[in-house]
Amino acid sequence: MVSVQSKTVWMKRQQCPCGDWKCFITYEGETDEILGSQSIKNDSGPTENMVAPYVGMVFKSDDEAFEYYGSFARKNGFSIRKERSRLSPQLGVYKRDFVCYRSGFAPARKKQTGEHQRDRKSVRCGCDAKMYLSKEVVDGVSQWFVVQFSNVHNHELLEDDQVRLLPAYRKIHEADQERILLLSKAGFPIHRIVKVLELEKGIQGGQLSFLERDVRNFIQNRKKVVQENDALLTEKRESETVDLLEACRANKEADPYFVYDVTVDENDKVENIAWAFGDSVHAYDMFGDVVYFDATYRSMTYGMLFGAWVGISNQGKLLVFGCAFLQDETPRSFAWSLQAFLRFMKGRFPKTIITDIDPGLREAVRSELPNTKHVISLYNILPRTSSWFSLPLGPRFPEFKYEFEELCHLESTDEFEFRWNQMVSHFGLDSDKHIALLFSLRACWALPYTRGCFLARMDCTSYWKSIDTFLRGLVETQTCLRGFLEQTGILLNHKMQSHEEAQYMHLKTCLPIEDHARSVLTPFAFNGIQQEMVLAMQYAASEMANGSYLVRHFKKVDGERLVIWIPEDEQIHCSCKEFESTGILCRHALRVLLFKNCFQLPSKYLLNRWRQESSLFCYSGQSNPRIKDEWYQEFNSLTETLFSEAMLTRERSDFVHRELTKELRRLISQVRDMPAVDEVVLNVTLSPANAL
After folding, report:
1. Which of 59, 476, 570, 667 is the most buried (most CB within 10 A)?
2. Is the pLDDT of residue 46 over 80?
3. pLDDT digit string (tens) for 126-151?
4. Nearest-angstrom CA–CA distance, 541 and 551
5. CB 369 within 8 Å of CB 349
6. CB 576 within 8 A of CB 275
7. For residue 529, what are the contacts with CB-CB under 8 A and spacing of at least 6?
8. Starting from the edge strand earliest in sequence, which strands make up the sheet with 539-543, in order?
9. Which of 612, 624, 611 lies closest to 684, judged by CA?
10. Alpha helices in 25-93 (DSSP H)
11. CA Rg value for the chain
């Protein structure tokens, strides 16, 4: 494999303020060592009572001494440099001389005939300020002693606003270096890059720790390094993708249910590659109604985009359905990835797909998933408003942010569009390209348009934090492409093999419908409906002449809701559309059921994806219908009864969890040793209640 000195750098794609889709760093992994950078701590200067160096002062190392003298120098209006050092066979470097930056005199330069040279004056004027050190070994420990110190200068010392502009203190820190490179790649001119950095840091013009010319020099020097490494990185990428492809083939041999797909260019080089493990395909059978496709991380080293399809289990846990590496973020690449994913999942479309706000991805979803609802998460939009609008709005941005977040949660589409136009006019954003983009995609992200779209509670903060933790952890720990395949396999295997402790679900209302929900739903789902039941007690239901109900909070903290109850069909509908969005009945519908003296929840409102037995028994689409008819229902009935009885007391719950786990493990081992005699293979994944 090719050895390249740079380490893998992963970046999170965002849209630049200029409107182009580029990369802004929001995660910093291991980064290249920047040539010429020094670790002088000059961000926070020394305190007012900092002790001046003196003869006999002791330091643990010469670096510590240089840092201390440098801090003293900055506080007093000058900078320092390293002058001479002396070496001995026994002690190594045993003497160090640090001097004022204006010490000595510049040597005269000879001009060659016909050569034009800039006539720059030297700052050196023979200043005698200095600190000399000597190393001694005391009790086997090396120490550095100040043997000579002078703070007498023959030049004017600088004020604080001037000393920060000395070359020794004009350092571009690593985070700023990466930001500068990205803005430069996006086509920003030097002066614009400086302005963006000042705005992001919230400082006045000219207050950065470096000058515009430092930015220009850094970009020029960095471009030379990038050009030299481009050829090596291209070779490394080719080698890494081949290695990843070989790993996919090996996994396919070991697991017949493992699936992968790949595209190559005209030179037979890998362009895109995607994969999914057999257990992920089985999990999709039960929990593939909502899928989030994350494609926000890009490798600067390999120039490839990492994508992951994830979902949510009935326990509220993150599920990984598949992963991909794409050569770019064009509609063509995104369309291929969606096609590959559908092939992996045997053509089963999700009800809803959640993505980032990427025009190319939007186009691909529209073409490949025409019958799937496309939702763009607000968790991906809201953090970007700062980079999009802080520059054009300046000090008015906080007011805009408040208005924008209010708009996101309005009730009606008419009100949204009316107030949107008011907001755009008020802030003078009529020609802003980001405003135009957001409005064109409003049906995918604004709540008045997405209310009632099934999201399976994936829009909660805790779930998005788990996605962020998973992706950051995955990106942080991998140094090669093959590592992503191996790590996702390890994480998936861990989820399948580990089992959560059974949770005893306490009742809060002691209502019969609460007890019924506890006997059927997982703790995650039960917790959601239990909260709604508690809140339902604060609402009043009024029956109308047409048989529908108006439900109001007793303090009128929110608007009234219209609930329709059809008893003969056991159908209930609420205008808040909470059930359509989460699969959990809302407080308004529950209030009407209580008003009608219902002691059990209608079965259709206890979705299979939230039931306890959904964790135990997952069929593939190829299961034998005869077997399913004869004993699958019987199995479901028995397990439902078992869990209903077990959840009554902690003692029962602990006993069933302990004994059932042992018995299921025994059965799994025994079944796997049996020969497959049917032509149609029955794919059964058995695990205790919290398997996925």
Report:
1. 59
2. no
3. 899 999 999 998 888 889 999 999 99
4. 4
5. yes
6. no
7. 517, 521, 584, 585, 590
8. 539-543, 549-553, 561-566, 571-574
9. 624
10. 62-75
11. 33
